[in-house]
Specification:
The chain is built from twelve helices and two strands; from the N terminus they run ααααβαααααααβα. This is Ca2+:H+ antiporter.
Length: about 375
């Protein structure tokens, strides 16, 4: 499913959808919605997601890979960080662990859900999913290191009571996260860019210019069209995150009515926010570009940690209350299982439906245990 690109620029659904969603966000923000309006908001949210994927692909086709997947991952994460800080400033139950729950949900959903689904789609269509183990392995190593330093160590440090860092430890984690993320972006986009370019199932390296007609953006967009798509991409992502926040109250009521833990709210919102990356990753997987799908999945996980922890560290200067970052035993086990399965999947540079299903099973286990701890 995709938004058609017919009509003039201003009348295209891919232009109207994000603008309409943003207008709706301004109108409904802070208001109690009637059931009919809830349906309209959900439809506009879906339209904004599809528009975000469309414009991300336009930008990616203009700038090439791996810059395209990097732009989408960073854009989503920056807006997500803003949402987390806004919710934490507003206070309320559960905000002390909001950053931890959101970041961990993003890691599990991207590294297992999006990556597993992408590998499954490619393997079912091509027999085997092929990717660069050098680039994918470097990304996975960085994600595991960031997650361990920021989410596991707070559970075992003794300077502060509870699963939280002391001030000095939080600064160290924030600086380390930012340094690792910036260095990875440099390696991905400059020093070893070829490690992150797609490989087809026949072993052929591809670029956007060499893609077959199957790609809907056969002609390279002009600089003006790419800039317009970038602005509309940001507009769509703001609308997606904002409308997800609007729907969070309804989600909280449904979760509470079902007797589920409060952490499920964060999982549902994370699933909504990650929809653009999920759709973009699957569409690349269908084109035999598993590497781009993995770039999106692991890049989103890395950006979620590498940008959120430094931002939260700065925000903690004026935030009241504790900042709980440490994971519980169940989450640590799931993270360790993700790391082991990820390493074994990445090392050969090839994956079948079995490896894909393993990651989807881990993601399913995480979602099930989030609802049934």
């Amino acid at each position: 499913m995709k938004l058609p690109a017919t009509g003039t620029f201003l009348t295209r659904p891919s232009t109207i959808a994000p603008l309409a969603a943003l207008v709706a966000l301004v109108l409904v923000w802070g208001h109690q919605l009637a059931p009919a309006l809830e349906v309209v908001v959900v439809l506009l949210l879906a339209g904004a997601v599809l528009a975000a994927v469309h414009h991300a692909e336009v930008v990616a086709h203009r700038v090439g890979e791996p810059y395209g997947s990097l732009i989408l991952a960073v854009a989503v994460t920056v807006i997500e960080v803003g949402l987390i800080i806004t919710l934490m400033v507003s206070g309320g139950p559960g905000t002390a662990s909001l950053a931890r729950d959101t970041v961990f949900a993003a890691v599990m959903i991207t590294c297992n859900g999006i990556a597993g689904l992408s590998l499954l789609v490619t393997a079912l269509r091509r027999g085997v999913a092929v990717f660069n183990p050098e680039g994918t392995g470097a990304a996975l190593t960085t994600v595991i290191t960031l997650a361990t330093l920021s989410l596991v160590l707070p559970t075992f440090t003794m300077s502060s009571p509870g699963p939280q860092f002391s001030g000095a430890q939080l600064v160290f984690a924030a600086v380390s996260s930012l340094v690792l993320y910036v260095l990875f972006v440099f390696v991905q986009s400059v020093r070893h860019r070829d490690y992150f370019l797609p490989i087809t199932s026949t072993g052929r390296h591809t670029t956007d210019a060499a893609e077959p007609v199957e790609d809907e953006h056969a002609a390279t967009p002009t600089a003006r069209a790419a800039l317009s798509s970038l602005l509309l991409l940001l507009t769509a992502l703001v609308a997606v995150v904002g409308l997800a926040k609007v729907e969070s109250k309804t989600i909280e009521e449904v979760v509470a009515g079902a007797g589920l833990p409060h952490t499920v709210v964060g999982v549902v919102i994370a699933l909504l926010i990650l929809l653009p990356e999920t759709i973009a990753a699957v569409r690349n997987a269908r084109r035999d570009r598993a590497q781009i799908s993995l770039n999106l999945a692991l890049g989103s996980a890395m950006a979620s940690i590498g940008l959120t922890i430094p931002a939260i560290a700065v925000a903690s200067i004026w935030l009241d209350g504790p900042l709980l970052l440490g994971l519980g035993p169940t989450e640590i086990v799931l993270l360790a299982l993700t790391a082991i399965a990820g390493v074994l999947t990445v090392m050969p540079g090839r994956a079948t439906v079995l490896q894909a299903t393993v990651h989807l099973t881990i993601c399913s286990g995480y979602l099930f245990l989030a609802a049934n701890p």
